[in-house]
Amino acid sequence: MTKEYLLGIDIGTSACKTALFTKDGKVKAASSGDYPVYYPKTGWAEQNPDEWWEAVCNTITEAIDSSGVNPAQIAGIGIDGQSWSAVAIDKEGKVLTNTPIWMDIRAQSICDRVNEEIGAEKIFGLCGNMLRPSYTTAKILWYKENLPEVYEKTDKILQSNSFIAYRLTGKVTQDISQGYGLHCFNMRTGQWDEEMCERMGIPVNFLPEIVPCHQIIGAVTKEAAEQTGLIEGIPVAAGGLDAACGTLGAGVIHAGETQEQGGQAGGISICIGEYAADPRLILSLHVVPDQWLLQGGTTGGGGVMRWLEREFGDYERSVAAQKGKTSLNQFNEEAGQIPPGSGGLIFLPYMAGERSPIWDANAKGVFYGLDFGKTKGHMIRSCMEGVAYSLKHNLDIAESVGASVKELMAVGGSANSALWMQIKSDVTGKPLAVPFSDTATTLGAALLAGVGVGMYEGFEDAVSQTVKITRRYEPDMENKEIYQKNYGTYIALYKELKELMRETAVNQKKG
Q1: Which of 130, 343, 371, 383 is the most buried (most CB within 10 A)?
Q2: What's the gap between Cα 17 and its chain centre?
Q3: Number of neighbours of residue 334 by Cβ within 10 angstroms
Q4: Full-model pTM
Q5: Burial class (CB in 10 A: 0-12, 13-18, 19+), 313
């Protein structure tokens, strides 16, 4: 039987997306399964990896059933996942505790102490990233100090994609693109640094063997086949970071090319051909060999609109069936009635603190400029514009340290909104191209498997056969001038409120 399909699995923050692709990148079938984020305390955000696996099993079954494809026709499976997980498993592979996810900032005090003891510059010099609470490192140390019973039983720490790969194959691995989440990872060599492991108090045996993202690490086991509807023996690639797979799925594989991410989180991934770190940004290795990604990662991406719709979209949901339009499509229409600049209403999208470039766990979301003349439409549009300002903020920092960005390849659910894409183009002054909206990240994961099993001659071949531009947006310079004024206020607002946000956070902790 001809093996002509690739399966991609995306472990996102809000849902698992699974898609079956043909060799030319077309979606044969797709399925999505939600799972919750738990917020047990202020600053905490965690998920249950077993719920990821349940969603994976369900979505694979649904995708196969709806496609009519015989699982024997699947040539390989690739997996991508959200960053900075810390999935603690014991020797039998049992999950020992919920994993804090990338939004979790509970370990700030641990980071402060370790940065002082070892030296923040020394840590940064090794791995190209500052030690901050959202990274995997801080979560392992938090386990050690706060969950000793978990720490003592831990055999390995896995990332989101490597956990799913383990459930599929029984093989424990660590792909190279997710290594950046640990500050004992040498970003130049792509290997663990045992001296830094010792200084940080992280046992080397907690850390799986590092492998290339497209390496076939094993095959679907009999048990996994029974749970997913797959067949035993399908090759599985190591997979990689979701942002990096989305970058590959957008066709960004050469130095200077840039992906703009509009999933739950927002951000950019600029492909660079040599090591270049900046403490305000994020540096990782690409899923494509011998390339790095200089990244800006924000907490306020498409998740801002999901929050807004959940809290303020009752009316739109109630008339969705009658109008034949989803609540989010109605939100787009309402925002489209408002002129650029939202009448001076400005939104700071710091909904879970903020990552790059300000790295402030105390930062909060803010609407500035409300008055009786403002409508829900103003609020919706200002949220879109606020996310675009956070994108520009990261771009400005990246370009100030030498990165060259000519065009943005936009992916993620936000790319479904033509209005939001035009706003981002106008705010940044950059052309935007949309290769895919919802499937670029999952496609990138599938392409890793395709390269790994030899379906493609390499990454150039994979991209040339699969990535097609569907829409383009050019910046409107008149709108850019309007946005530039608001952007100045956006930057000033955070500077003015930063100390107040810190004081408020301190007072809240005191109760």
Answers
A1: 383
A2: 13
A3: 17
A4: 0.89
A5: buried
